[in-house]
Amino acid sequence: MSTAVRPVSPLATPPDATVRVPGSKSLTNRALVAAALARGTSTIRGALFADDTEAMLGGLGDLGIDVRAEPAEARVEVVGCDGAVPPGPARLDVRLSGTTARFLAPVLALGHGRYELDAAPPFRVRPMSPVLQALAELGAEVEQLGAPGHLPVALHSHGARGGRLEVAGDVSSQFLSGLLLAAPAMADGLEVRLTTGLVSEPYVELTLGVLHAFGARVTRPDARRFVVAPGGYRATTYDVEPDASAASYFLAAAAITGGRVRVAGLGASATQGDARFADVLAAMGAEVRRDEHGTEVVGTGRLTGIDVDLADLSDTAQTLAAVAVFADSPTRVRGIGFIRRKETDRIHAVVTELRRCGIEAYEEADGFVVRPGRPAPALVRTYDDHRMAMSFALLGLAAPGIEIADPGCVAKTFPTYFDVLDSLRRAPAGGARGTPSPAPPPSRSPR
C-alpha cells in the first residue's frame, strides 16, 4: 500500500456542474474479449483506460492478439482471431482485475497448449474455483500453481468444443459472463445452467448485450439457463457508455451537498444496472432528471434513510454508505453478502471506516446498517480498494478533516477521480465540464 494521503476539504458552496466520467470498465472489458475472438477488425470507442482495462489489453497482447490502443482518443482497434486463439505457451498477468481473470480463463481453454494465468498477490486470495471447474469439464487440464481454487494456475488446453455445463451464480456473475463470452467460439456452442441464484444479474445482461452487438446468437430459455449457438463473432464498431458506477459518486455528491450535478452521456437508455443508483437517491429525497443525453441529481437539502436491496447494483453499496451518513434516519443495505469476496471484505471495511469517522454502523450477514451523524476528522484506510477511496472521499465534501489513505488505488478504474471531484469546487453557476486540474501533493503517511 502507498504511504500517500489525500485530504478532502469541504465544498465552499454546493456544486452546480456537469461532469464527464470515463467509459464503463464492465463494457470495455467485455467488448475487448468479443472483439479479440471476432472475424475482422473491431473498433471500440469511448473505452476506459485504467488498471483493469490495461490488464485486459496486456493479457490479450501477451496471448498474441493484435490490439492497437489509442488512450488519447479513448479508442481501441482489435484484430480478431476468428476464434482461433494463438497456441501456447503463453503467460498472462491479470494484475488485480477480476474481469480479466474470469473472462480470459475460458478464452485460454479455446486454445491449444499450456497457458499460465497469474495475478498480483492481493488477487490471489479471490475465488476462481467455479470457472476452473467449468474449464476442466470442457476438457482443459487445470494445474494448480498456488492455493487450490485460486490463481496462479496453468491451463493445458485442447480446444474446448463446448457442450453443457452447470455453474454456481452466487459467488460472482463474472464466472458466468466469462463462459458466455467464450462460448460463440466453441464448435458445439455452449449451454450453461445455473445451480444457484444469480448475483449481480444486470452484469450478465451487459454480457448478453455485448454478445448480440458482435453478432453472436444467445438465448435464455428460463431464468437459470443460457444457450449460446456456435458461429463466432463478427467485427463491429462498439460504443462504450460512461461508467455508471463512477457516475454514482458525483450524483451522490449532489445529494449530500444540496447541489446539482449532471453526468453527461449517461442517458435514460443506459444499459448498466448501476445507472439505477439515481433511483436510490430519489427514494432518499433527491430530485433526479434523466434525458437521452445524461442523468442529473439535485440535492433538496434533506435525505431520508431507506431499507434497500442492492444485490443488483452492489458496486454502489459503498457510495450509498457515504450518503446514508447525511440522512435523517438509519439506512439498511442488504442482499450484498457476496461483496465480502471483492477487492476486500467490503461490508467489514465500510463499517470499520465509518466507525473510524465517528459514525455508528454495524455489519449484518448480507449487508450493513448506517446511523446518520456528523463525521469526525479521520484518516480513512482504503484496503487496496478503489471504491473505498472514491466513496469515503464524499464524506470530506461536507465534513472537515477527512483524509484518504492510498488515494492512488483509484487508478484501478478511474485514474482522474480526484481531479474530477475537485472540478466540483470550480463549477460556475450553469454547469462546469469537470476539466481536471493538477492534484495537490500527498501530505503524510497513514497513522
Please explain how this structure is put together.
This protein has 447 residues and is an alpha/beta fold. It folds into two domains: 5-23 and 241-423, Enolpyruvate transferase domain (UDP-n-acetylglucosamine1-carboxyvinyl-transferase, Chain, Alpha-beta prism), CATH 3.65.10; 25-226, Enolpyruvate transferase domain (UDP-n-acetylglucosamine1-carboxyvinyl-transferase, Chain). The protein is built from twelve helices and 25 strands. The protein has helices at residues 25-37, 51-63, 98-109, 129-137, 173-182, 201-213, 244-257, 277-284, 317-324, 346-356, 386-392, 417-423, and strands at 5-8, 16-19, 38-39, 41-45, 66-70, 75-79, 90-93, 112-118, 141-144, 153-158, 163-167, 190-194, 218-222, 225-228, 233-234, 237-239, 260-264, 287-291, 294-298, 307-309, 331-334, 361-364, 367-370, 378-380, 402-405. A hairpin with a 2-residue loop joins strand 22 (361-364) and strand 23 (367-370). The chain is globular, with a radius of gyration of 21 Å. It starts with a strand and ends in a 24-residue tail after the last helix.
